[in-house]
Design goal:
Blueprint: H1 7-16, H2 23-28, E1 41-45, E2 71-75, E3 79-80, E4 83-87, H3 88-92, H4 106-139, E5 141-147, E6 153-160, E7 167-168, H5 181-196, E8 202-205, H6 209-214, H7 217-223, E9 234-242, E10 245-251, E11 256-261, E12 264-266, E13 272-274, E14 280-284, E15 290-294, E16 296-300, E17 303-307, E18 312-318, E19 323-335, E20 342-346
Parallel strand pairs: 7-20, 8-11
Antiparallel strand pairs: 1-2, 3-19, 4-19, 5-6, 8-14, 9-10, 10-11, 12-13, 14-20, 15-19, 16-17, 18-19
């Protein structure tokens, strides 16, 4: 049994819940260091340098080589705080999935709804993290806006990695059958190899990219070579590997696997938006980014308490209005290890 009145117990319960898959977050920002004990986070990232060692003349003592510097920004991660309220009316009627003649009591139903709300609010926070990942990977920054108590949307901060500049605009847009799609992917791969010193192994494509690849005349000519042994530079084998994620194929010569990412989210205006624009391609090195969490301070029993955790649930009760509310808080920013780890191709300019 979970004690819904104890925040620490709820946090321990959340740690045992397996979070849902989040493709961009899991691919590029999978590392989660221990959450900080303060609300402020130091975000440090670097550009990889490939300088040469200097030659020296005989009897010289050597030339001092300075260490590559890093960029350090101090952020107070924005508070993410979805909330659900539970009233007597919510638990007095038959819930979703119950039989018509249900024997479930209102208090039993309340426990079931509370457990479901914990999971769903965590999912919403992870969706927000996935949105932050998409913004960083496609623009190099993420503008953070939040709601005040009056319901108005206000800009809080901008998480920016100003050193990132790896963007490619094709000379011929990919919706043209004669576009040099392979050449543009190769240019992105070489750009990352040159700056990061590592071969990128994954390409995340907007929903239109797969169609452009299959309609590209040069790629189709390569795939129609009669003897596969004559040309093994690529293979296209589109198949769904998870909801909204399709494996497109592998470009062996670049050691690059391509995925089509079609997941969407609903914005503050109620419009459905793709995480990755339909005509964008992210080429990158997976597995090196971090999710950095700050401490969450909330009021409990008429005093401030600070919790260090990924997700901090809190129940409050208004006995006058007979309403129980659950809020889940998290302070998080995403940070790449190196800003040279990915490049963006704007397939239609």
């Amino acid at each position: 049994m979970i004690d819904y009145n104890d925040t620490v117990t709820l946090m321990q319960a959340m740690e045992r819940v397996k979070p849902p898959a989040s493709f961009l977050l899991d691919t590029f920002f999978p590392n989660i260091p221990t959450p900080a004990l303060t609300p402020n986070i130091m975000v440090e990232y670097r550009k990889v340098g490939r300088k040469l060692a200097p030659f020296i003349v005989p009897n010289s003592k050597g030339i001092n080589s300075y260490r590559e510097g890093s960029n350090i920004d101090i952020y107070k991660p924005p508070m993410i705080g979805p909330k659900r309220s539970l009233s007597e009316e919510d638990i007095s009627k038959r819930g979703f999935g119950e039989g018509i003649y249900s024997s479930t009591s209102p208090d039993e139903r309340a426990t079931q709804i509370q457990a479901r709300d914990l999971n769903e609010l965590q999912n919403r926070i992870i969706n927000t993290k996935n949105y932050m990942a998409a913004q960083i990977l496609t623009t190099g920054q993420c503008a953070i806006s939040g709601y005040a108590d009056d319901g108005k949307l206000q800009k809080i901060d901008t998480l920016a990695f100003s050193a990132w500049d790896q963007k490619i605009t094709p000379t011929m847009t990919w919706d043209n059958a004669s576009a040099d799609i392979y050449g543009d992917l190769q240019a992105a791969s070489y750009m990352i190899q040159e700056s990061a010193g590592i071969i990128p192994t994954i390409g995340i494509c907007g929903k239109n990219i797969g169609e452009y690849i299959l309609q590209n005349s040069k790629i189709m000519e390569w795939l129609l070579v009669p003897n596969p042994a004559n040309l093994t530079m690529m293979g296209l084998q589109p198949k769904l590997v998870s909801p909204q994620v399709m494996y497109l194929g592998r470009i062996s010569t670049l050691n690059l696997e391509l995925y089509s990412y079609m997941e969407t989210y609903t914005d503050d205006s109620g419009n459905i938006q793709p995480y990755i624009p339909p005509d964008d391609v992210i080429v990158g090195i997976p597995g090196r980014g971090r999710q950095l969490h700050g401490a969450v301070t909330i009021v409990e029993n008429k005093q401030f308490r600070t919790y260090s955790g990924l997700y901090v649930p809190r129940y409050t009760a208004d006995e006058d209005s007979n309403i129980l509310s659950l809020a889940m808080y998290s302070r998080c920013v995403l940070a790449p290890e190196f800003v040279d780890d990915w490049a963006l191709i704007k397939a239609k300019g």
